[in-house]
Design goal:
alpha+beta; 2 domains; four-stranded antiparallel β-sheet; 9 helices; 14 strands; elongated
Length: 379
């Protein structure tokens, strides 16, 4: 999680305040009965631990009063969640958060004596966390102490910073208040199970809370972040002129119809020069980029061989072509052939006796063996 001034700070590594709740109020001598007089029971006096009351009973070991200790949003430690009241509004959109008991969230800020802010939905929560100063004057990401969201599998309130979040591109399917929400799960297995239900969502749609920088939050609640611009990890960008392929080292911008790009949770990117380098990089990410892992990939793009247009590589179809001469216009000679649409990939296969539909695969099917088939000398 980061904003303009505090890049790449993960919320789950922030210092959490552990101070206990502070009791408010004092003991009451009594309260008026229905006829304006104090009843005998209600007028009981405060007793001290160990004292014997007039009825002969002994008090508890701790000092007590007839008024229960108050525990509300102002008295609970910043490390603990509270139940929103009917008057609590979403800090982002202004809706009443109590109206959405299975969807709302909250975070606490170690700022100005301690503050608590609410969100009606996961989309508003990640927006609040990405740019807290937009909604709480003077607050920064560094001030965030804790955050909570409702688990989509159980509706239980969970630690949002430790949750697995699914970036479902289908707003109607994701559901929830407002339009569009990332989906938090306490268990990564539940997030993976959700992803497994749909063909248009892959394991790379599961991210950590710290992936929600202002640009990614902007894709959910952009109208509340007017000062945020620029692409998120879900968007393709223009390949920088000086970007080098992480596999072979060539300048990727020199191959505008053949290059690819990969975006990571922390906002970093790599730019393979060709489909073959993309396949090898995906299969063995750590081999070609120090400190990177395949699990950190969020999005990746490649050029459709039929149209030269940039397309989502995780939804594309790759023909495992082994004869470079058939696609000699791609860099590095030996490449799988990417298509946005499966029928186009099958049409390519039908041209050759040595290719079958078994040679049509997804990027997620690339293994080290396939990577070495195309870029063996670079391993």
């Amino acid at each position: 999680m980061h904003d303009d001034d505090t890049p790449n700070r993960a919320l789950d590594r922030r210092t959490v305040l552990t101070a206990g709740a502070v009791a408010l109020g004092t003991g009451l001598a009594g309260c008026a009965g229905g006829d304006g007089t104090e009843t005998e029971t209600e007028a009981s006096e405060t007793t001290t631990a160990g004292e014997t009351t007039e009825s002969g009973t002994t008090t508890e070991d701790e000092t007590t009063t007839d008024a229960e200790t108050t525990t509300d949003a102002e008295t609970v430690a910043l490390s603990e969640p509270v139940e929103p009241s009917e008057s609590d509004e979403c800090a982002v959109c202004g809706m009443t958060v109590a109206n959405f008991p299975d969807w709302n969230g909250q975070l606490t800020l170690d700022f100005d004596g301690g503050k608590r802010a609410y969100a009606c939905s996961p989309g508003c929560l990640v927006t609040l966390a990405a740019k807290p100063g937009t909604f709480v004057d003077g607050a920064t990401v560094e001030d965030i102490a804790s955050a909570w969201a409702h688990d989509r599998a159980t509706t239980d309130l969970i630690d949002a910073t430790a949750a697995s979040w699914v970036l479902d591109p289908n707003d109607d399917r994701a559901g929830g208040p407002m339009s569009g929400n990332p989906l938090p799960y306490a268990e990564v297995a539940d997030a993976d199970s959700y992803v497994g239900e749909y063909d248009d969502v892959t394991k790379h749609a599961v991210v950590g809370f710290d992936a929600f920088d202002p640009s990614l939050a902007n894709t959910y609640r952009g109208r509340f972040l007017p000062d945020v611009s620029g692409p998120s990890v879900l968007d393709a960008v223009e390949v920088p002129e000086d970007a080098t392929c992480p596999v072979c080292g060539m300048k990727s911008a020199q191959f505008p119809d053949g290059n690819a790009q990969v975006a990571f949770e922390d906002g970093g990117r790599e730019y393979p020069c060709s489909p073959g380098c993309l396949g090898a990089f995906y299969a063995d990410t750590a081999t070609f980029a120090e400190g990177r892992e395949q699990d950190g990939i969020v999005s990746t793009w490649v050029h459709d061989y039929a149209t030269d247009e940039l397309t989502d590589a995780l939804e594309a179809w790759f023909v495992l072509e082994t004869k470079g001469g058939r696609v000699s216009d791609l860099p590095m000679m030996s490449n799988p052939v990417p298509y946005a649409e499966r029928p186009d990939a099958e049409s390519y296969v039908e041209q050759y006796d040595d290719r079958t539909t078994d040679d049509v695969v997804r990027l997620t099917d690339f293994t080290t063996e396939l990577g070495e088939q195309y870029r063996g000398k670079h391993y």
